[in-house]
Amino acid sequence: MLYRSVSYKPSLDFYDPSSRRVFWRLQVVGWLVYAIAAFWLLLGPEVQPSLSLFLLKLWRSLLGCLAALVVYSVMRPAARFNSTVKAATVGALASIVLGYVWFIAFRMSANLYFHRSFMDWRFFQYSRDSIEQIAILLAWSAVYLAVDHSQRARNERTRADIAETSAQLARWQVLQSQINPHFLFNTLNSIRAAIDESPEQARQMVTHLSDFMRYALVSDDRQLVPLKQELAVVSDYLSIEKARFEDRLQISYAVDDSAKNIPVPRFLLQPLVENAVKHGMATSNVPLRLVVRGGVRENNLHLEIENSGHWASANSADGFGLGLANLRERLQSLYDSDCGLAVCEVNGRVRVSVTIALAPAEREQEAIA
After folding, report:
1. Residues 352, 304: contact at Cβ < 8 Å?
2. Residues 252, 293: Cα–Cα separation, whole Å
3. Residue 73: helix, strand or coil by DSSP?
4. Domains of the chain
5. In the prediction, which pLDDT does 219 show?
6. DSSP per-residue codes, 209-229
7. pLDDT 10s digits, 354-366
């Protein structure tokens, strides 16, 4: 099953206020603890504690913090685009370079503490000591990537939970609106009337109703199903409505075969079709003309439900305005910005359009087809 990736912000991103506060708290606490530990480990019989010595260690920690922030600034762009390998490589190289720069900057500062010339370069013979600073920055980079990866996994689980909740909500909306008592009673009455006059039609209506109820009631953990499966349940629903309204309802389909295997969210089309029948019957001249269209253009799946009549207010009592808002939110949770939902009325025809960007694998399948 093909899911689109949702845009993702790293867990320690300056653009998120809550993450920014956590980031700075961790920096302050972590580097302060490092300064205290370095000061404490230096003390001994030959080294007595002093304020100037502690300030020197605090300065060293501050230099390390600045170096870590530079490492972060070069790693963050790669992490934002989910390139962990690239972020790790960039972080490692930056840690090595900045670890050595940190070593040089601190040694030059130490020259002043030990009353040597600021430009005394003799410390270069101890360049091996820079391994400590490099190791600290490498560890900092590793911790950052670990936290970033953990946050990304939590984001993925959250998005999956949202999608699952949205699917359950859509299922219950079907049960509460499409499979409501009026629909069932009207369908059963139509079946009852057809039993004597047209037994074959009655049997077909029972079959369509059974398939429709099974699709809505049977639990299914899949978030996406092939478009042809959604079209099948729409066909069952419209066949029942056609039997009820007879010549007052005209239905046509214009769906490309190449689009029928593309995955779409469950319960995507049926609520839109139900709304078109309900409000079309109230606002359209007889017969109500309903068209279901689907096709692929410019790497996007385009679906349209068009009916004659007029657009009902989004604030109408049937709650379809809320249903559209829920559908738009569900599409957003599954596809992020790679989708669209639009409603328009032109020349006495109402059109609801859904656009979904194809995943790379689906584009390849479309090209082969």
Report:
1. yes
2. 9
3. helix
4. 17-157 (no CATH), 179-368 (3.30.565.10)
5. 53
6. HHHHHHHHHS----SEEEHHH
7. 998 887 555 445 4
Q: What is the pTM of this model?
A: 0.49
Residues in a beta bridge with 304: 293, 353
Average pLDDT value for residue range 301-316: 78
The pLDDT assigned to 118 comes to 59
- Residue pair 240/208 in contact (Cβ under 8 Å)? The answer is yes
Coil vs helix vs strand at 252: strand
Beta-carbon contacts of 279 under 8 Å, excluding residues fewer than 6 positions away, are: 307, 309, 310, 311, 312, 316, 320, 350
Phi-psi region of 252 (alpha: psi -120 to 50; beta: other; left: phi over 0): beta
What is the per-residue pLDDT across 165-189, written as a single tens digit (0 to 9) for each?
Answer: 666 666 555 544 544 566 677 778 7
Given a contact cutoff of 8 angstroms between Cβ atoms, the answer to whether 255 and 298 are in contact is: no
Radius of gyration of the chain (CA): 32
Cβ contact 284:347 at 8 Å: no
Residue with tokens 């600073």: 133
- Write the CA distances from 145 to 10, 12, 16, integer angstroms: 9, 10, 17
Query: Phi then psi for 282, rounded to 5 degrees?
Result: -85, -20
- The reply to whether omega before 287 is within 30° of 0 (cis) is yes
Residue 343 is encoded by which pair of tokens? 């409603």
